[in-house]
Each structure stands twice: as structure tokens, then as C-alpha cells.
User: Fold RDD family protein from Candidatus Phosphoribacter hodrii.
Amino acid sequence: MTLPSPLDGVDGPTALAAQAPHLRGCVPAPLGRRAAARGLDFLLGVLVGSIASLPLRSASSLSQVMSLGLVAQVVVIVFTVVVYVYFARTGYLPGGRLLGIRQVRLIDGASPGWAGFLKYLLIAVVGGVTLGIGYLVTVLLIRKPLNQAWHDRVTGLIVLDVRAGRDPATPAPPIDVSAAPSVPAISLVGLDEVKVPPTESDVPALWTSQAPDLGSSPVVGKPVLPPVSTPAAVSVVGGELGVITSVPGRRARTVEPSGAPETTVTPAVTSHVTPSAATPAPTEEPPATSGPVDGVEEVEDHTLLAPSPLSLGASGSLRALFADDGERINIDRVVIVGRNPTAPPGFPDARLVVLRDPSMSTSKTHAVLRPDPGGVWVMDLHSTNGSAVTTPSGIRTAVPAGGALVVASGGQLHLGRRSFHVIEA
Assistant:
């Protein structure tokens, strides 16, 4: 007999994922396997007690019986303490370890800790006062689909079958963020020819010319060229992050007097026409801009202004981190994360975010995060357990201590044992 639940009709893994997203992929332990694990625990206790009491059979006097009996009690008590300390730290009792039955906290998936002691203290008190009847009643009143007894609900624990599902100690499966739009990154290098159909708003009026279609007959007349003293028009957005979104000559439209087709323009070349015999070649051309812009460094597939130090201004490219425990962290500026972070030198005005980490796997001041055109930029601050990034395709790379990497939208960021999914803000 089990009590009805609002989640009746829903299978255990689905109900568990809905109630505790950080336990996605875990499976509540079935009652049969739980009973088998408890039976093994009972048999092990009987075996230890029997072995500890063997010397009593050879006692020849009352004083020896009392002394050996005291020794046997101490052995049993020490064994019990060791078992439950191990249980508090790992979630495994001996029978559960053999059968793959583990208990964790429902709120964060961590080991039981003191909640484990409280659970079995309640069981002992209720069972002792009622001569075992109360314990049998609690078993009969277990709630599905999570298979929680009243003492599980009181202490906030959940019993899992790690052989049938995921062990909470392993990373959770990624969240489906395929619906999130991707942000294209533009680099100044490698654009030999861009064949994307342009729009009139993509090219400043300065770069509009009356050149004919490439390969057509020459046009008589002096071509319209921008003044030499006029710098190339570059549109920069994103505040001090300096994300370059418009490159001169990347997408240009030529104006034809008779509606000629559009042309493909090489990025580093301004408006140019083939001179004819009647038209002298221009004596001066604007300088080509084939190399990187000053102050810009290449970072994989996007271009950023070199930070010195990283600015704290707003960015036009916002991301958020969705944590494995359901926490959401907006990365709308430079953020310092850790168990109890403080602003390191160079980031005096950064936003400080305290990470919930019962396992203590993250450092006090673990990493620096900031928005990036392709995702989230992360710098590891020489943390104890390190940082890593995982691409949307599943390739994991460790962030060097004191170094930085970019985790793309749809990928994962790992800080110690904590995992975060990079999504659109």
C-alpha cells in the first residue's frame, strides 16, 4: 500500500527531474531493491555481533564474561559509527553499496551528512517505541513515484538506484538549448571573399560607388573614391568589449545605372574599377586593411579588444549560466564567482556571485566570467579543483590556471564539481 501523490501516473525519473532538475537522469530506487539492501545491512550487523561475542563462549568466570561482553559492545559500537560516518559522507550503507542503492539530499544531490544520522535516529526511536510496528507502517506508507517514506521526506533525502540511472556524483546530462539562437562571430582574418547578399544599410555611403559589374566593359570617367584622409568606417558595438560587427568592404553593393547584378567584394579593397585608355589610373589608393585592427587580438572565431584589465561596462552580447541545481546566473558584466568571492586586483567593480557548493569543490574566489560574442569568457583564478569548458559537441577542455577560454552558447562550464549550461540571457 502506498499513499497517493500529485505525481501519480508519472514515472519516477520524470517526476524526479521535474522536482529536482539537478537529478536529471537519476532513478528512484524500487522498493524491492531497497528492502534487499536493508536485509543485507541487517545480516552484516548480525555477523559482526556474532564475531564480537565469540570470546564470551570461552569465559570461565563472571568477571571474564563482563569484560569480554564490554569489549564486544565496544566493537559493535565502533563498527556502527564507522558505517554511519561512511554513509553520511557517501550516501552508501554496506547493503546499498553492494546493490547500487545510494541516498542523497533531494535539494542539491549531495551526500546525506547529518540528515542521514537524523533519518536513522528517527527510525530507531519510532521502531523502538512501537516495538518495530511503527517502522513497518512507514514502509507501507511510502509515496510513489519517488518512493519516499515519511522519514525520507522529513530529512529531505531520496533513495536512488545508481545502476538503473545516473549517479549524482557524475555530471548531469546537458539541457536541450537547441532552440536558443546562435550568435555569429566575425573575424577580420580569413575573409577572402564574402558572398552573402548585402543590404544597403550594411555599407556606409562613403563606400558606395558607380563602378560597373566586375568583368564588364570599362566605364569612361573618374571613379568615385573616398578621400585618403578619411578613415575606414568601422562599426563597433558592445561598449568596451569592442565586438566588431561591421567590417569595411565586407558586404558592399554597387549602384548600376541599368540594374546590373550585385558583385562580390574582397574585404580589404575599396571601390575599384579597371582603368581604360581614356581614363588614367588613380595615382593613390586607400591602404588595404588585411591585418588585424590595432588593439585587437584573435580569439578562436571572434575578435575582441585586448582587455587591460577587463572593462566592467555593459555588453551587447548577454548570456546566462543555468546551474546543475537550477540556479541561474546572468553574465551581463564581469562577474567573480566562488564559495565566498572577493574582487581580485584588476576587477575592483566586478559583481560577486556566491556559488552554492555543499561539496566544497569550488575555491573561495574561483573564476572571472564576462559576456562574449560567442558565449561566456572564463578565466580560472588558480582554483584548487580547476575549471573546464565543454563544447556543444561534447569536447571538454581544461582552462589553464590563470588562463582563459570561451565556452560557446549551448556548451557547459565546469567549476570544481559544479556544472553550468551557457544559454541566451
The radius of gyration is 34 Å. The chain has three domains: 12-161, 190-290, 319-424. The chain has a mean pLDDT of 73. The longest strand covers residues 418-424.
